């Protein structure tokens, strides 16, 4: 507590000292630099001759020069590979000065010059946080799942329970589940439902993916305890239309449409929409995939069967209308998002339980409004506001009267639903309705050229009501009454760049608060019979931390970040799902101390480039929220695990040879231990210091890309790529429990993919052929839940500009 007070006092003194040091009476000059196509140029040099001042454009192509004495000046803007432009400017007190500057490419030396300005992806990588940035534009022609793309990155593991549309779980440096938060353009996705999830996005509607490992910046605004994944959608300045469709094994179809049209007045229409479908009827075999013969015994030899109630269909239509890049707003957009999902539920927690009639459907409708402006009221202030209201409906349908075999045949009739089994026979048509209000405010204030403040506030308020016309299960009673949850997250950060721009320092503080009102059907205060009552739970927590980056010469960079932060329980953890997860209104917020340290170095030998990085991480997590073991009725609830400690390291290499070869490789080792010394009954825990169950500890990935058009001097773009993924075998349960020959484990995974892309007519048309799991290996991410084997797909893409 004493350290927290000292830390807050230091932040306040730093802010006050900077504020008093300002000279607000002097005017400022700001603007934006783009190329001839309207794309923002990052790292362009802006000089104001006669003032002794200069600066570089940021990741939005924007620049700002402050404390300028009134008078006439000459402004020059230059960047390698572009023609320098100059113009005269008149600086007057009390008049804002904003410019729009376009640089033309040097056509005569484009083949020999190396452009040194940074892209938005490069600028994000240079932040002081432990961050990985995937420049998706480079691979937009590929037919690739976002989950599969993420799974190839250092320190990240994505576990899926099946094919397209199946449940998935992201782990960053060992922390997984809800500890990893997802964002789209900085907006939290936690209340958007399964239809509008990360894996439904097509690669060609995304500009880049930012992955923050552990410590996350204040401007994201969420309670991301273990890290954050932010999808940045395309924001092309010029008008365009991008269409793609892919068809693959198991009748898998994926269609994506993105586009933008802007009138010279600033009026803008744009969309990012997609449709996905798959039968998911891939073959499965092995333990628990059994069919009895005439004698009633399982047929030997592990015969193969196709999944038959695992089809998936989902679509999202997102349309925006408003104004962009006008004098009074960078963007003012009204959006409507409509998402829908229908899927079959084939199995339970293993493939031993086969469901033939269980279905799930969900729909989302969300209007939203977003406004952002650089230079709002004052040239130093940037504002970004977002507000949305969504209605989410989800229905689980389990009204079947039959039990099924793996070959799709019925072996038992006249049962009451399939999910409950013999312990809880009850048909159900449970529907939940979530009404969610989401608000976000982000303010950035430039104190000086090298100091700025950022404030973020996020509100997420959900009311859930449920109904079930057929279920009589006792545990379903609470879900029929409304339940509420309100979460608020606020954060403030201060950044200063010192030592001639070599040392970047960011200190921040965050506050988390939530309140939940859940109906509970249980014994209350010593009563002899169960009753229905409301439980009001509220809690709050603080977080604070530091992120720093030190440039050691021209080719070395050292990053360090540390925080003590919290995560609030979310809706499904607190309120349940009305089916197999019970509510748990007494959950405590998770807390964790996160530390990252990494060294980055770049090498160059003529036209060859190598970037290497090595990093270590430490996590000390308290009150970890995870799903407990199921009870005799087949239901479970989330609970707190006292303490988990994580230590690990990762290494990554990226190599480029001339312009025709690129290679990347990474490896991650993580040691995650249970540090809870006493069990809930107060006895010494027999699994103390065990590795945490069902989490891998050693992973590696590699990819090689050949640009054949560059190597063979071809006119059209021709690319071949191949990659590999490896995960070491890990235990399903606690390693200390059970005999060594009876322990369940997830086997080692070693899978290879390959693909070929061809683009022609200046890249307007492209064809991509891909094969995943080339050797058709049996692949598991979760115990006895087999993923698809060999998969072929063909993707066609057309771009109109």
Secondary structure blueprint with pairings:
Blueprint: H1 2-20, E1 29-34, E2 45-49, E3 53-56, E4 62-65, E5 71-78, E6 85-91, E7 97-102, H2 120-125, E8 131-134, H3 146-151, E9 156-160, E10 168-172, E11 175-176, E12 180-184, E13 187-188, E14 206-213, E15 227-233, E16 240-248, E17 252-262, E18 267-278, E19 283-284, E20 305-306, E21 312-326, E22 329-344, E23 359-374, E24 381-398, E25 402-404, E26 410-413, E27 428-448, E28 451-468, E29 483-498, E30 503-522, E31 531-551, E32 556-567, H4 571-575, E33 590-605, E34 608-627, E35 638-657, E36 661-674, E37 698-707, H5 708-712, E38 717-727, E39 730-731, E40 745-746, E41 749-760, E42 765-772, E43 780-782, E44 785-786, E45 791-800
Parallel strand pairs: 1-7, 12-15
Antiparallel strand pairs: 1-4, 2-3, 2-5, 5-6, 8-14, 9-10, 10-11, 12-13, 14-15, 16-17, 16-45, 17-18, 18-21, 19-20, 21-22, 22-23, 23-24, 24-27, 25-26, 27-28, 28-29, 29-30, 30-31, 31-32, 32-33, 33-34, 34-35, 35-36, 36-37, 37-38, 38-41, 39-40, 41-42, 42-45, 43-44
């Amino acid at each position: 507590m004493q350290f927290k007070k000292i830390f807050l006092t230091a932040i306040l003194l730093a802010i006050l000292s900077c504020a008093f040091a300002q000279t607000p009476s002097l005017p400022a000059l700001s603007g934006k630099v783009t190329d001839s196509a309207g794309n923002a140029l990052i790292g362009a040099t802006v000089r104001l001759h006669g003032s002794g001042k200069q600066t570089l454009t940021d990741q939005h192509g924007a620049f700002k020069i402050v404390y300028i004495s009134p008078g006439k000046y000459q402004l020059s803007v230059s960047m390698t590979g572009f023609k320098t432009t100059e113009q005269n400017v008149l600086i007057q007190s009390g008049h804002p000065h904003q410019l729009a500057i376009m640089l033309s490419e040097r056509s005569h030396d484009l083949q020999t010059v190396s452009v040194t300005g940074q892209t938005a992806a490069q600028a994000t990588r240079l932040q002081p946080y432990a961050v990985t940035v995937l420049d998706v534009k480079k691979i937009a022609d590929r037919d690739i799942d976002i989950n599969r793309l993420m799974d190839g990155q250092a320190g990240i593991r994505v576990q899926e329970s099946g094919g397209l549309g199946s449940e998935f779980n992201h782990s960053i440096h060992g922390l997984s589940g809800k500890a990893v938060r997802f964002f789209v353009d900085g907006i939290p996705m936690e209340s958007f439902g399964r239809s509008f999830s990360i894996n439904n996005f097509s690669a060609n509607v995304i500009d880049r993916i930012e992955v923050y490992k552990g410590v996350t910046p204040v401007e994201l605004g969420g309670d991301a305890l273990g890290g954050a994944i932010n999808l940045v959608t395309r924001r092309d300045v010029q008008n365009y239309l991008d269409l793609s469709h892919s068809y693959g094994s198991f009748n898998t179809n994926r269609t994506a449409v993105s586009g933008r049209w802007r009138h010279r007045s600033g009026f803008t229409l744009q969309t990012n929409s997609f449709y996905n479908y798959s039968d998911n009827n891939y073959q499965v075999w092995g333990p628990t995939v059994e069919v009895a013969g005439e004698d009633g015994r399982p047929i030997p030899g592990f015969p193969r069967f196709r999944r038959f109630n695992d089809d998936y269909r989902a679509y999202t239509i997102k349309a925006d209308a408003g104004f962009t890049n006008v004098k009074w707003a960078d963007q003012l957009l009204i959006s409507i998002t409509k998402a829908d999902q229908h899927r079959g539920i084939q199995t339970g927690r293993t493939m031993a339980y086969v469901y033939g009639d269980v279905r799930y459907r969900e729909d989302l409708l969300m209007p939203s409004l977003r406004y952002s402006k650089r230079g709002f009221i004052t040239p130093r202030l940037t504002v970004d506001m977002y507000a949305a209201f969504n209605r989410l409906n989800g229905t689980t349908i389990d009204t079947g009267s039959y039990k099924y075999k793996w070959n799709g045949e019925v072996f038992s009739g006249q049962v009451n639903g399939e999910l409950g089994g013999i312990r809880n026979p009850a048909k159900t048509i449970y529907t939940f309705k979530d009404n969610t209000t989401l608000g976000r405010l982000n303010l950035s204030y430039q104190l000086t050229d090298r100091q700025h403040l950022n404030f973020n506030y996020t509100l997420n308020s959900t009311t859930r009501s449920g109904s079930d016309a057929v279920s009589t299960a006792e545990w379903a009673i609470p879900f029929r009454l409304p339940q509420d949850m309100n979460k608020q997250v606020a954060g403030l950060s201060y950044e200063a760049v010192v030592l001639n721009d070599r040392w970047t320092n960011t200190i921040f503080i965050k506050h988390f608060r939530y309140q939940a009102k859940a109906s509970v059907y249980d014994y209350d205060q010593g009563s002899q019979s169960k009753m229905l009552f409301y439980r009001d739970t509220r809690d709050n927590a603080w977080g604070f931390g530091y992120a720093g980056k030190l440039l050691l010469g021209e080719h070395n960079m050292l990053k360090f970040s540390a925080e003590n932060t919290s995560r609030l329980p979310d809706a499904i953890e607190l309120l349940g799902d009305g089916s197999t997860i019970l509510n748990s209104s007494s959950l405590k917020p998770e807390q964790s101390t996160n530390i990252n340290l990494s060294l980055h170095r770049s090498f160059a030998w003529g036209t060859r480039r190598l970037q290497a990085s090595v990093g270590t991480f430490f996590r000390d997590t308290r009150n970890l929220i995870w799903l407990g073991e199921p009870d005799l009725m087949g239901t479970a609830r989330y609970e707190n695990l006292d303490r988990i400690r994580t230590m690990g390291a990762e290494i990554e290499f990226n190599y480029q040879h001339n312009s025709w070869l690129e290679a990347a490789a990474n490896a991650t080792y993580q040691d995650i231990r249970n540090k809870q010394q006493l069990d809930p009954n107060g006895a010494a825990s027999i699994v103390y210091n065990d590795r945490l169950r069902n989490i891998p500890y050693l992973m590696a990935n590699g990819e090689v890309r050949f640009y054949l058009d560059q190597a063979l001097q071809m006119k059209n773009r021709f690319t071949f790529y191949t990659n590999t993924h490896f995960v070491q075998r890990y235990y399903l349960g606690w390693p200390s429990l059970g005999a060594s020959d009876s322990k369940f484990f997830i086997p080692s995974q070693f899978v290879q993919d390959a693909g070929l892309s061809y683009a022609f007519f200046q890249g307007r048309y492209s064809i991509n052929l891909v094969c995943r799991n080339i050797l058709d290996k049996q692949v598991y991410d979760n115990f006895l839940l087999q993923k698809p084997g060999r998969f072929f797909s063909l993707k066609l893409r057309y771009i109109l500009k």
